[in-house]
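Late entry, written up from scratch paper. The run itself happened at the end of the previous shift, but nothing got recorded in the book at the time, so transcribing now.
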Amino acid sequence: MTLRGDFAAAALSGQDELLLARSRFGGRSLYWTTDPRSGALLACSRLSPIVAGLDGVSVNETRLAASLIRATLSDQTQTHYRGIHRVPSACVLRVGPEGVRARYDTPFDVRPVRVAPIDDLADELRELIFATVTRSLEGVDHAGVLVSGGLDSATLLAAVVAVAKRSGKRVDAFNLNFAARGDDRAHLNALCEMLGVTPVRVSPRDCGAVLPETFVIDRSPTGWSQASWDIALTRRSRDCGAAVLLSGLGGDEVFGGDMRMFVDRARQGHPWSSLHAAARLQGWSGTPMSRMRSLVLRRLISGVAPRPLRGAVAALRRRDPVPWAGPQLRRFVSGGAFEVGIAGNLRGRSTDRSWLEWLARSGVYLQISEARAQVEMAAGCARVDPFLDDDLVEFAASLRPDLLFHGGWSRGLLRYAMRGLLPESLRLRQDKSYFEPALQQVVEGAGGFSTLGSLASATALADLGLVEPRRFRDRFDELSRDPLNGPLWIEVWSVLAGEAFVRQAS
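Output as recorded:
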């Protein structure tokens, strides 16, 4: 039997045994440990009660190192504390006082690749989205929706408004309002006019008051710079009376398709067709030449490069994973503790797994779900991500890869399915908004970069050998001078959160 839904479950399965389970696409957080004093098993959906109930917990430096460089551990059961474990996605554990007695990985059915007329597939996708939203709103009279003006959140809002009209539910839309390259505001205005919705607009600067509390939530580092407005908007939704806030999180992974399709086509003997498709891909950033390089040529060359050359490149990355890496962090990287590298590239996908299973077990959904849990805890309002529904994900994964790129578009099938339900200017928009101006405004609202100077010293991480503080301070200062540098926000913020975490845990 396959367990479905967005859940985590714990049950007694014997006098001294717990049965712990987590759904396939992240689900809900679930942690466990054994109390060394009493030998009792402890399990909870949050870390804080477990940490508070134990004496002398210590930081798991391997997991902390992974979070600093945004990597995934090969062992996904580890938390930021030694001796406290988490249940991975798509997994059931039988746990006793001595540890895990048995592990059962939830199976993924091998389904035949679906090929059907594009109109039929688009109709089915649209119906699945509406059905998923309907399930998400069961038992809820008043719901909020996070909306930006991008394709995923616009699709979600359109579906929620349609379902709510049929069922008499109240819907409020919540938006982070700011100007930026690839500005969302005109697209949002067109959407709201079409749907008859007036969104609640929140300025990034007004989210600055939340910033100090966003580095550590539930006794774990957050590490993502958008946490301030995630929490502020969720609280605003709660204060307006919404029982749940829906987001389009997961849309990238579900509707974006497997970008390896392009290089796979080249490897199957169709290099020119592959390059042509990459060059013509719409709704994907860059020029035709840059798309050919990133989607085909680089991946093709890396796959056929001589083994000694690949080994030399890997060794170079291990010696210098990031400019500010301390000696202990370098040892972790060179020791092969991480499954995902600092560039976010997964190791070679196993050919005996479908794209669906590969993605679910990679840790991507696990990270999404635990970030969502942190926001829920800080904001006091439930969050739901309808695009991670089992039926919807399974449908996308069952399609022949090129069908998700229908018409030569990124998210092509989704765009086609939403004809008539979204403004055409939004449905066929080529760009996305850049968030760096909003991040800059959040920091300014909190008092500026100078208020983060203490964390930027990275003294606690330096004591663990994970960060070389002077080099990291150089990167922090560079960000303060160039706050529109997107990659620097990602790099710097994970270290600030890690520093705050170690100080709190000490």
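The longest strand covers residues 8-14.
(Scratch paper discarded after transcription.)
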